[in-house]
Design a protein that fits this description.
The protein is mainly β. The chain has 5 helices and 38 strands.
Amino acid sequence: MHKTHVGLMFALVIMLMPGGLWAEEDASTTKLDEVVVIGTRTPHAVKDSPVETVLITREDIEQSNAQTVSDLVKTVPGFSVGGNDDIFGGASSRARLRGLSFNNGYGLILIDGQRIHGSSQSGAHGEYAVGLNQIPVSMIERIEIVKGPSSVLYGSDAMAGVINIITKKVPEKAVAGAGVKYGWYKVSKGKNYYTDAVTTPTDYGSNRYTRTAYAYTGSKINEDMGFLLHYTHEDSEGTSLSPYENDRDSVMGKLDVDFTDTAKGWMKGELSNFKRETTSTTEEESYRISAGFDFKVSQNHQFMLKGYHYVDDFSTSTRSGDIGFDQGELQYTWYAPANHVVTSGIEFQRQSIDYIMDNSSSGTTTRTTVVEDVDTFSIFLQDEWTLFEKLVLVPGIRYDNHSTFGDSFNPKLSAMYRLTEATTLRASVGKSFKSPTIRQLYYDVPFYHSPFWISSNPDLEPEESIGYSLSIEHTMLDDRLITSLAYFRNDVDNMVVTDRTGQTYEGADLYIYENVEEAMVQGIEVTAQFYLNDNCSVLFGYTYTDSEDESTGNELTYTPTHSFTITPAYEYVPWGLGISGTIQYNSDQYTDDDNTRVQDAHVVVDGKLFKRVGQVSKLTLEVDNIFDSDKGNDRYQRTGRTITLGLDMEF
């Protein structure tokens, strides 16, 4: 990067920290006082959670430039999303947490505590994939993140961690709002993956466009009942060689009912319709219906019952089918004597697929089909035991009975110890498992993945990992300065990969899924969060990651050794004028398993200005990738500088 650019980045940080800022009054609470649930399935303030939990608040979301969930989490140490562009319809397939890929199912994504799937509309790949960008950012109230093995509470796929995307809640009083965004960007040249020939977009040098519009309303119907309705439309022209339309319309509705002071119920529905128009049409329609009931027998005994039905209907010119999740869950929480909080539960989950894929190679056409249900019955038990007011131990165990793999036991032990009022130690060790995907297990004939064929393998074993973490958190200045240092390690056995068979199928090489690899990822995460007052903050995050595919000695893909972010934000309240930014650095990272292709070290700088107009409106100017970085990779077409104008209103 040019020295002038580096100087401008540091000038941006210094500019946001003038002496006059100290005149603002301190706020009474900090982010540490916010309540989170995901780590233990019981409510805790962030500072009191026995399991280290990262929280992204609505205020963080509004200060960011993020158009996608992938971009929201990029400032969280341990996340690697440098291979993604912050644009609706763009790929999120390279998003990783502590070296393990979400697209391949190593991280679990929840929306309001419930599993989600999603492929094209979330920027993931294929019917098996799971992408971060499940719902529009305008629908999100907050995001809770637990890093490390979490199978004890959440089952399969929670190997790297769990992200719980929490949607906006039913308001206590009548409210309505709306907003629009309009942005433009250019797309860079790329290179053909196999021949290295330069590929030039058909509209090279011209602007492409992205747009978002949303509206919502909510209110109390009476003292015991309230609702929320939220609608979002998103579209963009993508990043391929030729512009194409990505469109998504999303609707969410919620209804909360207080039957009595101790019995509460809720219902929720979400519908998302996605369409991509290229040389062929991709359509994806997903919907979810869920309901729950909370009953407090007494102050010390609480029950929660919930269930949902989710379907993702996906089709292109060569692939089509339905992927679904159905789940029912009963949870019991007992605030027991002697400082114990016992959480137990039973779950039943069914993942279903009815899918076809047409394959064409060298004039040959074949059809791959799969119709399969995978059932999992689970029981979990966890005890939060507070000793001496300073030490909290959280042992837990989960039993799963998988319709294909049978029984599995996954224990975990977490601990929190307060060295002082300002210094907290947290540690955990746990076992996690990941069942192979339906694609890896059950396809009836090989499918074509240019330039070779891949065969499923019904003899695969589940992947397992042992994860460790140790962290220390220290606060100063009345919790205005929060610092933490964490060490983590994950050892993964039976990793599923595609391996050569030495045979051919329909004139091309045949690969098969096999359990052949062991992988190790370890590293250090450093975080510093400085909240001068309600209106001024600077956040810093750094991650060092050491990863290895132990069968080859190579590093894992899209896992930079060094990465850091600096995120300053300030609002001058008398003028209603605010500014924020993000400086993100990623070191070299490999983009292929053989470690022959490199995404170079790069810096990306984003900036945002906003102006409040009256009591109900806010105007924003967002500039992503201010210095037009190629993000270290000339292999793919990438977005350059992106300028977005926005207007938000709430009544």
